[in-house]
Amino acid sequence: MSLNRRAVIFTGGELGYWALKLLRQDDYLIGADSGALFLVRNNYRPNLAIGDFDSVSDTEFLYIREGSHQTVAVDPVDKDHTDTELAFLRAIELAPTEILLVGALGGRLDHTLANLHLLVQAHQADIEASIADEYQTIRLVTGYASIEAGDQSYVSLLPLTPEVSGIHLSGFEYPLSDATLTMGTTLGISNRLHGKQGEIEVGGGWLLVIQSSDPQPAMPSS
């Protein structure tokens, strides 16, 4: 049975008010470890809080449990997945219309790369998925994708397989026709849309599509 709505996972990474602005009223909310604490502290009630909760105190864990519809605590030693992957696997089981992973970038590089690889599991389950932070949105494209212009003006293409072939871009400053990208090159970095929409077609391989904007400079303190 399909969830018939979007599943949004808040992880224990870098989060802020920007993350709350990504939410829709009917989202199914999953908090992974301290990501659940962030939601509860901001007056959101996760449908599911999951993880080993080793990054929160006992008092904070009680706060999470009381503020969530369901809490699943796992052994911090006897587990084969990160908290984020546990949440992601639960989301896949629900068969939502799509999955959005928030707070999964920045910090430790190993966790960031592992979280990017989770997009493969969603693809294999035929579920659209993306990862977002304050300045970028990342998704995996294996066939066709429509890209909408917005605040994130750059569009970069990086192969997740050794080779991605048959790439066609339309509506971009630098169009491509039947192009091939291979790991270890930067040909696909920092393209831009010409107008409000662009199209990407992929013939073979797995392509990471990263829409991004430059971070805003910090305001000087008074």
Quick structural summary:
This protein has 222 residues and is an alpha/beta fold. It is built from 5 helices and 14 strands.
Order of helices and strands: EHEHEHEHEHEEEEEEEEE
**Overall pLDDT metric:** 91
Report the count of strand segments: 14
Main sheet makeup: 10 strands, mixed
Radius of gyration: 18 Å
Structural class: alpha/beta
Give the termini separation: 55 Å
Give the count of helical stretches. 5
- Estimate the global geometry from the Cα principal axes: elongated
* Beta-strand share of residues: 25-35%
Which percent range fits the helix content?
A: 10-25%
Which runs of at least 5 residues are low in confidence (pLDDT < 50)? none
Strand order of the largest sheet: 4-3-2-1-5-6-7-14-9-12
How would you describe the overall organization of this protein?
This protein has 222 residues and is of the alpha/beta class. Helix content is 22%, strand content 32%. The chain has five helices and 14 strands. The strands form two sheets. A ten-stranded mixed sheet has the order 4-3-2-1-5-6-7-14-9-12. Helix 4 runs parallel beside helix 5. The longest helix has 16 residues. The termini are far apart.
